[in-house]
Amino acid sequence: MKQENPRYRWFVVVVFFFFMLLHQTDKLMIGSLQVQISEDFGIDNTQWGLVNSGALIVATFLYPLWGYLYDRYSRTKLLSFASFVWGATTWLNAIVKSFGGFLVTRASTGIDDSSYPGLYTLIADYFGPNLRGKIYGILQLAQPLGYLVGMILALIISPMIGGWRSVFYITGSLGLVIAIFIYFGVKEMPRGKAEPEFEDMAEMQAFKFSWAEAKEIFKKKTMWFVFLQGFAGVFPWNVITFFFFSYLEKERGYDANSILFTMAPVILILASGYFIGGALGDYAFKYTNKGRIIVSSIGVLMGALFMYLAITTPIDAKNQFFIFMCLTAVFMPLSSANVIATVYDVTVPEVRSTAQAVEYFIENAGAAFAPIITGVIADAIDLKTAILLICTVAWGLCFFFYLGAIFTIDKDSHDLRNQMAERAKSM
User: Fold this and answer.
1) What is the extent of the structural domain holding 352?
2) Would you say residue 13 has pLDDT above 90?
3) Which of 227, 268, 324, 332 is least surrounded by Cβ atoms within 10 Å, i.e. has the fewest?
């Protein structure tokens, strides 16, 4: 195989960073638009939860399909197609005039939301195990930054350019531009190229998807703990994404400027937490296979603690609330990059997209109903109770699931390295 310029892989990281930044902006800014859209269509919290759950449900059922396609075909071409779908469905979501049409077209935006496994596995073939946590941390900076950009578009730009439909037209158009850029600018990489056993080989065998290896995913005990924590762990993220701005406005009395100046620093701190978590995980991984799991378990435990302290802070104690939210933001994302890297620490290259897609499927199978559950609790009691209950319980469960993975990761990781060594000898 022809060797790529070593700097080219960083170009790929930059391209994917902007893909994720703009896609997350498009996906997450709807939370900041809740009041505008709800007033436009005259809907309550339960109906709003249904709108967001629709996209999550569509994404959930499509994860296995995307994972299979990524392991069988060109990941770059499929990512380009996903970006095109993002742009097209967002445009449709802006065009419709009825709530029923909005509900259906919003659900269709979930088609491309399940496209990330191919991106992460392609990056895994550009960067070896000791760097992956940091790279995933850099890429995942795009998620909170996209949230922040979306918040600015929703709260500041939207009123200036004609409302929420106008910003959807902007982000949808950017999706179409990124699709062209990925199609012509990003090159495919042989699966497994960056594994330590193969990284110095000029030529290597092409590993192809097999159902036998796909079945092996479910025989690894670590993956079951990853699946369980994923099911519980995404609940809080969806609750915060889709309801926190409404909570600040309606129950804590914040206006648009107060929300922006409170949440912008929190989101920037959250963004740094992705990289910090990935870097800490890579550092700990050098000394023990348990390193990434340990960092992840600390993250969810401390995140739950500080979220509880923030939500129970009296409404008039704004500075105290802000401090606790900043501390929550430090710990919330510590596990994110480490979970992805852990999946690749125990699975073979040709089924990694499938493995991650299965994990995301299980995550969203529960989390897809988080907005509906939150809306029902909020309408029955209040948003404070809904956010507090779901976040603390979910993150508490994640902590115990990570404890289980600590006892299984050594064997599963060693098994993969032995399998890769055997393949290298046979080439």
Assistant:
1) 8-426
2) yes
3) 268
